Structure to design on (715 residues):
């Protein structure tokens, strides 16, 4: 396949940090049609260049950062990018996304993606502009939080708003296992310790300058019209709630439905939800827009607390997951404190999901006497003590004192303490952190979180939505058979979506989204082509994971994560009696061996992955 | 006359009534089930039909129903019989969460 490329720059930047060399490699049309971009491109390079002998902290580990065919277009939220690497929480593959401007600026600087390899022998940052990359000294940025790092680099480079900067904070520098990559003041590639991988490479940040690279779009006029339609549909999706109240607008629904995580899953009842939700924050706190590239969703704001002990504090508007972690999960009911802790987490460069699970677990252990002040460096880790939580986050990010243990994440820290401690932690046996919900009433996400190959939800997003793909809805959310069948049927779409360089909140209509891709690239993809591409990614990551040590006994929840709710709307109902049959049914319908969970040769052949068959059968 | 209290929460309240959450009292007949109640709701509030049901007449996947504090699937699903003074909550999933 050859010919002119539309929607792409056709180039990927390869940076070898060991010898501080950057080269440009071509991306051909065949590769792009097969892997599309974002998570797909990341999967290709991860699979081809990271053999099983390479651990997450090896210089030979790769980190692939990529936009996609819609990146830098007029499609709302097309500044998004994927990060793919082998991460330290699972020591398996991770694909995680961040929104903002970076993905768009990268394309306008002349690249569809970046491959990072090697380890710098000094602390550096990468500066990309006009098709060139420069490795610069970052010793003066050491120890700086992510916001200060952004400010310092912006000042140094003088690029103002033409720069997008993503980097690590103290957590990534100190290899906290759940360190994140943070940029554009409040956007986070959060999962599976991608910040620690960057820290291990001695890479503090990547600054990309917007540049004037002109993207060739196949049918720009049509894409503009489709983008407008897609925005309208996305804006009005589910009553336009996101547009009005942000993701934290869903906190009360979560509380009423029993899927808000409360005090480490010790209860499913939280009467104070209206003090913490998006409606409360947006009607009580000052806020000014902080939108992403080409996005008019009114979703992201910078917020100033106007009441309570944190009056005057300014930070990014807490997303639902932040409000859940720093509110109900740790027993706090002050929204101002949620804003404060959200900002501290992002500045330190930590994943808010795992940070919340760690903190809530520490608090429960403290309440039950499993941990005492001797174990917490004198901190009073009582429920709702937000100042102690703040201090603990600093300790974790710096691996100071007790923070060194807790920086390992709940699974490893609790196993080290032993006794009852591991039974109280919320984690998957594979090591992937659940999102910020109580999944015991949302089985589709509990299953997805445990069997995922991306180390975060793979098939679901805000529940499962088969109707968007022209399928019938789940009729019984507590049927092991139906839930596993629907998860298997829909798996593929989300991974295709993560190839595009767009924000999921802005692509709620799959058919319009595919039309946008076709208008940008000149392709003629159908929904079934898109699903096939997505499933190919899922299967290739799965083969990668098996080669890197995955075993199916790890695809299960920790005892507390899979426990029976003691109250709330799912009281007394446990997922565990049907767990094994649920997983087997899912494997089967994914075209995987029911017992071993490995993709069958037939499945790999159907997806055009026959070259992987020897890898999985060896 | 038997009645049930129906609470329509979050953005579903918006779709139905232009408010964030709405409480209604609806009369029911002896032996009425959840689906009878939804039929009544749809008859009385026309805009409810598309918000609750898809083109095949199946309840949208994003609508969870809680009866007296319990998910309806853990009772008898849409066939759950309703009684005087029961509390029914319609709870939609939220974008992204
Ligand atoms: S919806 Fe929110 S996160 Fe997504 S692109 Fe728009 S502002 Fe950014």
């Amino acid at each position: 396949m050859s010919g002119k490329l539309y929607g792409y720059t056709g180039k990927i930047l390869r940076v070898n940090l060991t010898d501080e060399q950057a080269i440009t490699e071509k991306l051909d049309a065949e590769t792009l049609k097969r892997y599309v971009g974002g998570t797909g491109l990341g999967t290709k390079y991860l699979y081809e260049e990271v053999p099983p002998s390479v651990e997450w902290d090896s210089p030979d580990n790769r980190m692939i950062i990529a936009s996609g065919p819609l990146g830098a277009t007029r499609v709302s939220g097309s500044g998004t990018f994927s990060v793919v690497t082998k991460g330290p929480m699972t020591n398996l593959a991770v694909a995680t996304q961040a929104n903002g401007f970076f993905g768009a600026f990268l394309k306008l600087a002349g690249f569809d993606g970046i491959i990072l390899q090697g380890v710098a022998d000094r602390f550096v940052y990468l500066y990309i502009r006009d098709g060139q990359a420069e490795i610069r000294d970052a010793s003066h940025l050491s120890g700086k939080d992510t916001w200060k790092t952004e400010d310092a680099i912006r000042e140094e480079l003088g690029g103002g708003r033409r720069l997008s900067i993503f980097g690590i904070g103290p957590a990534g520098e100190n290899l906290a296992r759940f360190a994140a990559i943070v940029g554009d003041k409040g956007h986070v590639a959060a999962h599976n310790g991608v910040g620690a991988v960057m820290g291990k490479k001695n890479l503090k940040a990547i600054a990309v300058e917007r540049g004037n690279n002109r993207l060739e779009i196949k049918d720009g006029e049509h894409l503009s019209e489709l983008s407008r339609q897609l925005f309208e549909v996305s804006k009005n999706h589910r009553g336009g709630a996101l547009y009005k109240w942000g993701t934290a607008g869903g906190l009360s629904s979560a509380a009423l439905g029993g899927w808000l995580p409360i005090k480490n899953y010790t209860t499913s009842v939280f009467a104070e939800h209206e003090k913490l939700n998006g409606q409360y924050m947006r009607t009580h706190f000052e806020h000014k827009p902080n939108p992403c590239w080409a996005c008019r969703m009114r979703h992201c704001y910078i917020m100033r607390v106007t009441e309570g002990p944190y009056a005057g504090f300014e930070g990014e508007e807490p997303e639902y997951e932040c409000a859940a972690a720093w509110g109900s999960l740790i027993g706090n009911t002050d929204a101002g404190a949620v804003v404060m802790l959200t900002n501290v987490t992002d500045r330190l460069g930590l994943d808010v999901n795992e940070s919340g699970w760690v903190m809530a677990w520490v608090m429960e252990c403290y309440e039950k006497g499993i941990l005492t002040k001797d174990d917490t460096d004198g901190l009073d880790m009582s429920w709702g003590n937000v100042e102690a939580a703040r201090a603990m986050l600093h300790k974790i990010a710096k691996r100071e004192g007790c923070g060194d243990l807790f920086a390992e994440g709940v699974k490893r820290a609790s196993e080290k303490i032993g006794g009852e401690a591991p039974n109280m932690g919320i984690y998957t046996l594979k090591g992937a952190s659940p999102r910020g919900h109580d999944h015991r009433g949302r089985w589709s996400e509990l299953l997805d979180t445990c069997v995922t190959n991306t180390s975060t939800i793979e098939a679901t997003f805000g529940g499962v939505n088969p109707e968007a793909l022209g399928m019938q809805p789940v009729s019984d959310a507590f049927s092991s058979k139906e839930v596993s069948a629907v998860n298997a049927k829909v798996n593929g779409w989300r991974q295709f979506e993560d190839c595009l360089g767009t924000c999921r909140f802005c692509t709620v209509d799959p058919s319009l989204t595919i039309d946008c891709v076709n208008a940008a690239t000149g392709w003629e993809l159908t929904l079934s082509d898109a699903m096939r591409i997505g499933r190919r990614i899922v299967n290739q990551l799965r083969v990668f994971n098996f080669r890197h040590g995955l075993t199916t006994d790890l695809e299960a929840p920790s005892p507390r994560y899979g426990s029976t709710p003691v109250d709330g709307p799912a009281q007394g109902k446990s997922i565990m009696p049907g767990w094994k049959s649920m997983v087997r049914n899912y494997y089967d319908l994914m075209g995987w061996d029911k017992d071993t969970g490995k993709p069958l040769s037939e499945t790999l052949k159907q997806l055009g992955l026959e070259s992987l068959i020897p890898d999985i059968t060896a | 006359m038997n009645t049930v209290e129906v609470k329509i929460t979050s953005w579903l309240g918006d779709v139905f009534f232009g408010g964030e959450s709405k409480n209604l009292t609806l009369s029911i007949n002896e032996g009425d089930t959840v689906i009878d109640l939804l039929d009544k709701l749809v008859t009385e509030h026309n805009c409810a039909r598309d918000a609750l049901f898809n083109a095949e007449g199946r309840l949208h996947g994003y609508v969870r129903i809680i009866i007296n504090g319990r998910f309806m699937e853990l009772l008898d699903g849409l066939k759950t019989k309703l009684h005087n003074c029961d509390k029914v909550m319609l709870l939609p999933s939220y974008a992204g969460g």
